[in-house]
Amino acid sequence: MMISNGIEDEEKWLAEGIAGIQHNAFYLHRALDSNNLREALKYSAQLLSELRTSRLSPHKYYELYMRVFDELRRLEMFFKDEDRHGCPVVDLYELVQHAGNILPRLYLLCTVGSVYIKSKEAPAKDVLKDLVEMCHAVQHPIRGLFLRSYLAQISRDKLPDIASEYEGEGDTFMDAVEFVLQNFAEMNKLWVRMQHQGPVREKEKLDKERNELRDLVGKNLHVLSQIEGVDLEIYRDTVLPRVLEQVVNCKDELAQYYLMDCIIQVFPDEYHLQTLETLLGACPQLQSAVDIKTVLSGLMERLSNYAASCPEVLPEFLQVEAFTKLSNAIGKVIEAQVNMPVVGAITLYVSLLTFTLHVHPDRLDYVDQVLGACVKKLSGKAKLEDSRVTKQVVALLSAPLEKYDDVVTALTLSNYPRVMDHLDAATNKVMAMVIIQSIMRNSTSVSTSDKVEVLFELIKGLIKDMDGTSTDDLDEEDFKEEQNSVARLVHMLYNDDPEEMLKIINTVWKHIMAGGPKRLPFTVPPLVFSALKLVRKLLGQDGDVAGEEVPATPKKIFQLLNQIIEALSVVPSPELALRLYLQCAEASNDCDLEPVAYEFFTQAFVLYEEEVADSKAQVTAIHLIIGTLQRMNVFGVENRDTLTHKATGYSAKLLKKPDQCRAVYACSHLFWVDDQDGIKDGERVLLCLKRSLRIANAAQQMVNVTRGSSGPVTLFVEILNKYLYFFEKGSPQITAAAIQGLIELIKTEMQSDSTTSNPASDAFFASTLRYIQFQKQKGGAMGEKYDPIKL
């Protein structure tokens, strides 16, 4: 009878059953206390009759069963004590078989059977065989399942196992194995049959209820694994084939999934390794709805852990060809389960790859084979957009990187980029970032142009727009982070051989040129500095040899650098290009290549004239030009004059007077280089300083006109400091009198009513005067020099 009015009815029936048990248990206890066997059997049979109900769900039936079980334990204690009931156990075994109903009779029989085996008055195997056969009489799924569970429970510690007290003449562990296997087979059939106990519309509910009872069946396999006599041979020849026969023949997805998982979990790893073929052979025969990927993943995980914990067993993995067997089995399963989603197949390959990397890390051919199988599975499909699939593919591609700590190893796998091609643009970028992070984390040096080619093919999602996506669609912060990662990567590409390094630079240049104007400001600078590093390594070499096979020479690299920096004009990014031209000019100065250095300066000036329009950017640029030019010693008189003239000219043309003043006094350093062979033209130094003074004066007047008060004297103090610098360096044109005059000028300005007081400039001037005082007091040549200056 099916439950119609839901949970309330069931609760009522359970309450009635419990009341019946408690009522009979009361009289049973009274009978036991008075050692009355007849009454004890009568009330125990009545108590057990409550288990004959068909109206309870498995969950509620279990509650009832547990109450009965507690009473049976008490009854068993009574049966053991012959002095109390005065009936030999053999007679008792006969006596309980007269109970009126089959279910109470069998429960009582199992209880006495347990005592019978313990008494050793009959061989354990005979009693067990008798009990397991008699239990056939109950074929109702729930009642039969719980009955056999009770039989398994009371017999667990009484099996005739090796070194067990129940192993006697004719009683061997094989009898125990046979008993457990037989009970398991029958329990599994009952469990499977439960699904037909209600209408199809309640299938989900029935499956849930069946799932709650699965451990009753699984316990048998656990008992089998605990039998001492079950060695590898017995397991391979008897246990596994019999269990798998049940699994395959039951044709029930719930049972098949659970029991396969059970086999993998309860039996030892070495048994699985030696019986892989048999175990894997059952997989394609399972129902298509069985979640075989989880089962196989569990098996591979166990074997991986086994290999990791016992390295000495690794030769066995090769001996039994574990990888080949697993790979073939996965192929067959995917073939047999036509409706298996892509995510399922990829998950299997992730597990196989993890297994391979643990067990055969040296076999890159195996790793590539797994990736190849993935490519085959994904071929013909559109770009992956299902997040579950892409997550698994990222896991698949990340596994070799994590294992080898070396992207270079992954670059040798021919199928690696082919798997990446199946990812959508966003995931491709994620994977590219994972690759770059792996290189940075492990400080991996990618050292050949071929490997760089493969690497940049892998990370192309970051280097150029993919599948119609545009850089405009990207989040600005994410875009910057991605491009900065590519920039950092460029510094990890290195080879000691100059020719190979030049090839690497050319390869990178080819790839980043395809990235479009928005990426170039991030990717060009690291490439330029990488090339300059190579130039400095080749210092002193020269080469005018034509042809393809020319060794790397500074001149050749500078030609390439000119092209690379020129590309920034499409961005446009003039300030960055100007900085890079100046870096190249400095490097060509170190290589003693005057025409090349002059050309780079020319390019920098052209950019300054034509592209740098912002006044702040002009100030920064002119100071960079002056600073770089000051360090150049490669130029002849004519070229140097041309460039310094340009620099001073541009300095005086800056928009704001204070900027003009500072740039002009900075130019004074172009005429006095404090090296042994450096230029020392005191006349032109003085000209620059006087010119800056005039500009400072004009700036003061301008402020006075526009605001009605003069600005602070900061510019004058700065110029005074320049005077002191050249005075100390020994420029004859900078005299103590000139310095004295400037000090007086500043003091006058500061005392003027129109001058705005400024604590910073006042402190600056005071500090400068303290320095002069310090030099005066120091004595020696420098003290004498400063002596004429009066403060």
UniProtKB/TrEMBL annotation:
Localization per record: Cytoplasm; Endosome membrane; Golgi apparatus, trans-Golgi network membrane; Prevacuolar compartment membrane
A Gene Ontology term for the protein's cellular component: retromer, cargo-selective complex
Topology with respect to the bilayer: Peripheral membrane protein
GO biological process, one term: retrograde transport, endosome to Golgi
InterPro entries xrefs: ARM-type_fold, Vps35, Vps35_C
Main location: cytoplasm
Keywords: Cytoplasm, Endosome, Golgi apparatus, Membrane, Protein transport, Transport
Keyword Protein transport on entry: yes
Primary role: Plays a role in vesicular protein sorting.
Family designation: Belongs to the VPS35 family.
Protein name: Vacuolar protein sorting-associated protein 35
Organism: Fraxinus pennsylvanica
